[in-house]
Design goal:
The chain is of the alpha/beta class. Helix content is about 50%, strand content about 15%. It is built from 13 helices and nine strands. Helix 2 packs parallel to helix 6 and helix 3 runs antiparallel to helix 12.
Length: about 350
Amino acid sequence: MSTDSLGFLDAVHGLPEQLAAAHEAAGALDSRVFPPADGIDNIVVLGMGGSGISGDVLVATAGECLPIPITVVKQYGVPRSIGPRTLAFAMSYSGGTEETLSMTAAALDAGAKVVGVCTDGALAALIAERGAVHVPCPRGYMPRAALGALVAPMFVTLFRMGLLPEAHAWLVAAQEQLARRRDACRVDVDGPKNPARELARKIDRTIPLIYGGGPIGGVAAMRWKADVNENAKAPAFHNAYPELDHNEICGWGQHGDVTRQLVTLVELRHGFEHPQVERRFAITREIIVEAVHDVLTVEGQGEGPLAQLLDLMYVGDWTSCYLALQNDVDPGPIDAIMQLKSALAP
């Protein structure tokens, strides 16, 4: 078994406690630091990678509940719609992500009410200089292993502003479900009793193609792809229903002799799928099953949309780590990203 040189599995193991601690810490902040809800017309989340996906989690679970529109921006600039009546979450665990710094500066220049979620770094300095709100993250995590520390502050902020009354209960339910899932997937649980280890065994050296349904399944699938890329250092691809049925479904019309050896389809299911999306899973599977190596299914568990989304993502965290270890890959280091950042540095 490969070495876990950075203790990445320990970080994955601690996600339930991380989410609970971040929930408690954000709840302890003085309510007066948050802007009044009646002064906000729209919400944006600014962030990249493992930090930015926290915004996708918020949109997927709360987008239909919030009384105002919310978007996620993953660029260097921001839309002109951002202004003094915008609540902007600036998400960068390290506080040093160049795209997020650029977007945050632009949002501040536009007069947005910025809430920065980070440890320290240039983002914390910028927020302090401009008098914005800083919700500190605990130190010591890799950004992709800090999902709980990044997600909870946004939900707590919106709860305390009165924009998302469901947020507190959702966070509690998610903490409970993550703990249950961790107990099933931890490293001392072997064989078929460990769903993540079993998924990794079945995927083996094939390329996982992850399909999710609707906003929740789509974000979970995106996280799975990133997990396999960063932790297992392997290719993976993702898509979401219903969009994939308007294009990608046609891509399985030929080359089945090749894809049947290379591609394993992983379906991420949850209890908040539109009835037509449920049907699309079944019908699409019938059409493409002969062109893939295997079809595996993961069912999200827990009470509420946040619990089920984080549960699906957490299974991906564990599965990608087992994919790494069974192929003698160290899940912690991300040398390719470090090399790229070094080359981009002035």
